[in-house]
């Protein structure tokens, strides 16, 4: 009895990888083994990047809050400590937005914790 090979599934599997490799340079886009490796590596980078994005945004927010707080004579750590002490539960994303786009509202928050 001849060996059964499911060429429909194999083709679909390859087609899926080649679709994901679209736009890659050279053999990475059209040679099966190279494309498969390139796509797997790209998926690892994408997974890692989703975690890094959160870190990067938190660092950006902290920088913006620090700049806003220093305009009013406080450091970032003093400001955040005062917020916790006064039970003001604004997260860093909101505080950074206030510091950047609504300086008068950020000043009101700073004055409340001073």
UniProtKB/TrEMBL annotation:
Q: What Gene Ontology terms describe what this protein does at the molecular function level?
A: rRNA binding; structural constituent of ribosome
Query: Which protein are we looking at?
Result: Large ribosomal subunit protein bL20
User: Pfam families of this UniProt entry?
Assistant: Ribosomal_L20 (PF00453)
Cross-referenced InterPro entries, in alphabetical order?
A: Ribosomal_bL20, RIBOSOMAL_L20_CS, Ribosomal_protein_bL20_C
The family note in this entry says: Belongs to the bacterial ribosomal protein bL20 family.
In terms of PROSITE patterns, this protein maps to: RIBOSOMAL_L20 (PS00937)
Going by the UniProt record, its keywords in alphabetical order are:
Ribonucleoprotein, Ribosomal protein, RNA-binding, rRNA-binding
Q: Name one GO biological process term.
A: translation
**What is this protein's function?**
Binds directly to 23S ribosomal RNA and is necessary for the in vitro assembly process of the 50S ribosomal subunit. It is not involved in the protein synthesizing functions of that subunit.
| Any one GO CC term of the record | ribonucleoprotein complex
Signal peptide segment: none
Keyword check for Lipoprotein, yes or no. no
